[in-house]
Amino acid sequence: MSRHAPALLIVDMQKAMQQVAAGPRNNPLAERNIAELLHAWRGADRWVVHVRHLSRSPGSLFWPGKPGAEFQDELAPLAHEHVVDKNVPDAFTHSGLERWLRVRDIEALVIVGVSTSNSVEATARSAGNLGFHTHVVSDATFTFEKADYSGVRRTADEVHAMSLANLDGEYAQILDTRQALNLG
């Protein structure tokens, strides 16, 4: 494994995210782009980390043992790929992820997955604060529509764009799939 190449961090790509109950979303091609990046990382023998959200609420779609908590088939980890379980949005909180990366001298991350406005943003903020060279792939992440603090309903595209703006330049560099594929 190349320690100088960034690790691919795939956040919460679980079956529950494919259900209509999650709500209207953006980036309908995000899964295709994530799969393309995953294929490239595997082909180049680079580090891949899969993050799985496991809820602490028994009624949640992400409750351990429920079908929604399972990884999406086309993005499921291989036996040698690292899996991080979390029960809060930030993949670094109480998970051992930072230590796992540091032990392997991994200094850069490419973050993809869901949702841009929650787990992706929380994880990217921590990664940037911890000193990792952090990249978030705009077309390999997605989110859902949401009301803002004033009660105004925002489209998933608006929520996504704001989350990327929150991260850009301060915590992470925002790339698209083509640019991410060219990272060394």
TrEMBL record:
PANTHER family (UniProt xref): ISOCHORISMATASE HYDROLASE, PEROXYUREIDOACRYLATE/UREIDOACRYLATE AMIDOHYDROLASE-RELATED
Superkingdom classification of source: Bacteria
Domain Isochorismatase-like residues, every copy: 7-177
InterPro entries associated with the record: Isochorismatase-like_dom, Isochorismatase-like_hydrls, Isochorismatase-like_sf
Name this polypeptide is given: Cysteine hydrolase
GO terms assigned for molecular function: hydrolase activity
Keyword list, A-Z: Hydrolase
Gene3D superfamilies reported for this sequence: Isochorismatase-like
Source species: Stutzerimonas azotifigens
